[in-house]
Design brief:
about 325 residues, alpha/beta, eight-stranded mixed beta sheet, elongated
Length: about 325
Amino acid sequence: MKKQKLYIALYEQLKNQIIEGQYQTQDKFPSKRQLSEHLSLSHTTIEHAYQLLLDEGFIYSKPRSGYYVSDIQSLPVINVNSSSIETEANPIDTNQYKYAFNLAEIDAEYFPLNLFRKFAKEAFEDNELALLEKGDIQGELNLRQQIAHYLFNSRGVSCHPNQIIIGSSTEQLLNMITDILKTSSFIIEKPSYPPIKHVLDKNNHNYIQATVEKDGINMTDVLNSNNDIVYITPSHQFPTGYVMNLKKRTQLIKWAHQKHSRYIIEDDYDSEFRYYGKPIPALQSLDKKDKVIYISTFSKSLYPSCRIAYIVLPQTLLQSYLSMPYKESN
């Protein structure tokens, strides 16, 4: 059997990637030099493959700019329909909506991309060789220091960088917290943020639900319970949007101070976003006895795919975290 020439094989592979939608119309194609270095192929092999793609109209060249993907819908030799690019399980919604009530997305139209690109470039101007190493189990120290400054200035949260633990999501960190508090029983809001219920159910933790009122969680439900951990979203309750008033915040802090085993998990998601006025200070800022576990994420303030969440652990629980046998895999 005659062996297929390298440039033909490369041409077929690139053509199929374009047809399958891995490259979109007007996408810039890799330069011949880039692809040659990436695939460890000769410049001549790349040039022959690109020439075939050019001849058949899959790509086109812009002088002093490079190669770009053609609109393959318009090519007479290809019958491309939506099913050849998108599977039936993931159809494209072509409807236009004025408002979108998506919980885990941002309005990309208003994302300051130029500013983000500028800061990203500045961050990598120096030789940050430490980023190539394994790093600290709690997350990069510089990041934790910046989070500590940010929390103090914007949310009134007072903490040391050593108390901050970086994770990939709120749910991952909630799993870690419930492992630390594995002998505890919980009180959660009703209605509540779905991940906390999922975590507690999965780990077979005992919990009750306390109703949410317009001024926050029903304190009678909390005070009448023997459970010792309260999970709340006081600054922007999920999903009602209610804000817990100062009286209930003070009552909850006093409740936590009454027993050594009691803690409050404050999920401060979306707290930065307000239509008017300054953000309400975090519940943690009222606590003087280290009884609040503060948790938040950058999913909305930056973007969901950055996958950065963090917690501020009270000093009394930090040693329990450090002694966990699997912490290095977090």
